[in-house]
Amino acid sequence: MADYFTHFSCLLDIGSSENAVRALELYTALSDENAAEDPPANGFLLSIQPEQGGTWLWIHDGGNGDAEHVLKFVLRCAKEFGLTGLWGMQYANTCSRPRVDGFGGGAHVLDLATGETVDWIYTDGWLSTVLEGGNPYE
């Protein structure tokens, strides 16, 4: 049996060290909500980066994460702290055994002010569309 994993590592500038501490509370609340889901999604790990002045959060998988969970958290932070500008993350999907569908990844860009997705790509869908003769950009 194969095990599937999603890996990522990204930063979010939260604006101030006070916001960073509050973001940890938002993270805990989101983690509690996630734990109540059936089944719970894979989460992510979060830490404040003191070498960046304590205003940057490091968001990464703990061996297997959920990119959608990260996007939800970032949007909550954007709303809570009035963040603006573009933010993005990329992720890799891997597998413990060689599988045709076991590898891929993607990227997602958010407009923090509006909460809207600016653009995204998922390589599995992209590859399938191109191989079927379609244009993935339409």
Whole-number total of structural domains: 1
Our Rg estimate from Cα atoms comes to: 16 Å
Distance between the termini: 37 Å
* Major sheet: arrangement of strands: 2-3-1-4-5-6
The residue ranges in which pLDDT falls below 50 over 5 or more consecutive positions are none
Helix/strand order: EHEEHEEEH
Kindly estimate the percentage of residues that lie in beta strands according to DSSP: 25-35%
Largest sheet composition: 6 strands, antiparallel
Structural class: alpha+beta
Q: Which shape, going by the Cα principal axes?
A: globular
What does this structure look like?
By secondary structure, this protein is α+β, with helices and mostly antiparallel strands. The protein has one domain. The chain is 32% helix and 33% strand. It has 3 helices and 6 strands, in the order βαββαβββα. The chain has a 6-stranded antiparallel β-sheet. A hairpin with a 6-residue loop joins strand 2 and strand 3. Helix 1 crosses helix 2. The radius of gyration is 16 Å and the shape is globular. The N and C termini lie far apart (37 Å). The mean pLDDT is 93.
Topology diagram in text:
Layout: E1 4-13, H1 17-36, E2 45-49, E3 56-60, H2 67-81, E4 86-95, E5 104-111, E6 116-122, H3 123-131
Antiparallel strand pairs: 1-3, 1-4, 2-3, 4-5, 5-6
Helix pairs in contact: 1-2
